[in-house]
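hey so i finally got around to running the thing on that chain from the lab meeting. sorry it took forever, my laptop kept dying and i had to restart like 3 times. anyway pasting the input first so we r on the same page abt which one it is
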Amino acid sequence: MVRYTKEHKQETRQRIIETAGRRLKRHGIDGSGVAALMKDAGLTNGTFYAYFTSKDDLVATAVADQLRAQHENIVAQAAPGRAGLEQMVRWYFSTEQRDTIEDGCPNAALLDEIGRSTDRTKQAYTDGALTLIDGFAARLAPHDPPSARLKALSLLGVMAGTLQLSRALTDRQLADQLLEEGIRNALALLDAEQHN
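ok and heres what got predicted. didnt touch it at all, straight out
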């Protein structure tokens, strides 16, 4: 029997989580069974239970991981202040972000299903979303981020909804125009907030 090192087990677990995150965003939570999730990771179904107690355990972990990655790769990398907010808005409303669902925002891809998920998945989402919006709030109101938290959460809702709508439209020109309008609307919201 082969014994794996702790590092190998951790790498395998992380591979399952990352692969699951991409699949969940592409096919949805309901459209992603354990067999498909494990096949994507190049592992057998039997291996699954060495790492997770249930599909819900993996879903909650993958949702948390996707939001953590979005925070680390986008929000934490953005410039401070309004310039950083504009960077994030423009990234969010890019055609690449819209067209590559599996690499894009977990909010726009999974929000409707997370709302129908277990409390554990909702809590993982809530924790991750609050980390994201705290990054927005720190740029909206650098001297008092808590005062901007609700505005930042509302901005995230507007952004995710606009992106979902753009993804659903078959008219590519209209979908692209919607992204441009999303940028204008988000920046107008930011400017209104900064003048309050």
